[in-house]
Amino acid sequence: TKDVHISNDPQSIENSEAVIMPGDGAFSMAMENLHTQGWIEPLKNFIHNKGYFLGICLGFQLLFSESEEFGITKGLDIIPGKVVRFESSELKVPHMGWNIVDIIHNNAFLENIPNNYFYFIHSYYPIVTDNSWIIGQAEYGTHFSCIVGKDNLLATQFHPEKSHNAGLKIIENFISQVKGRS
């Protein structure tokens, strides 16, 4: 078995096999905290060196180039694109609740997961400018990317930990991929 740690030390990920970055909150405040606590370069290096990375909700959005939440804020710029607010007079924002996700590209982290319902709570979504990153999409007034990834990186706008068996299977697959490497 492997040790699991919650860390506030950016250097701790240098020898980690995997990082899970969950998150709820505002993009700009999260990026400011990552910057002031010294996480930006260690996270970028970890991802660029193909460490296993799972981003959830805000941890998904922070991977993009920028967000318009509370003004334009630069993101980690791992995935080209901009995070924008849902613009709908007909639908309630935030988008909260269960929504079907269409898996559009196969991915080892999504093995044995059919198109299924997942639990969302968000007011912003990414406009992805490099479609090679898009793995899954959902629809809420507009089609939007909700699963992205390449290599050892997977990120979801929805909360897999709140998404019953299908969501838990994503986490199980992620752990299995990490364990298969060791």
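Above is the first protein from milestone M3; the second protein from the same milestone is given next.
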Amino acid sequence: MYKVFVNDKPLFLTNEVAKETDFQLFLLESVDIEQLIVKMFNNKIKKAYLYYPDEKEILKKVKEKIPVCKAGGGLVYNTKGEVLFIYRNGKWDLPKGGKEKGEEIDYTAMREVEEETGVGKLKIQDKLQKTYHVFKRNGKYKLKITHWYSMTTTFDGVLIPQAN
């Protein structure tokens, strides 16, 4: 099962039908995914399941219905064990950003952390999980798949947040 966030609402991709009543179930093969996303963005649906019988193919089928963009980000620890966060759009978040053409995803993660925070001397420790969320850009909904990495830094300078 995958969990895709539409704002803060979960959209579960599943090959099982659960006996719950606090969500709506849709068939991936026949759903108008854009209409479902619009309803979730507009708070008309708070939690939904997309059903497809083949668990190994479910994410591939979703990617056929909505454009995908890849991103990389970091869970960054300094030498004191403190974690690096950014504050944007009224929320605390981890630094991340979009993959550029021809770029390896681990490089994307390090580049984006440095661009967004000014923190250098980054070293990847481990690959963490991927996260999935839907966002809207230029009037189109997209599925962002973010590859997360655990990183360390010995940086001890002034943090310079990215203005935009």
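Note on the second protein: The first strand starts at residue 2 and ends at 6.
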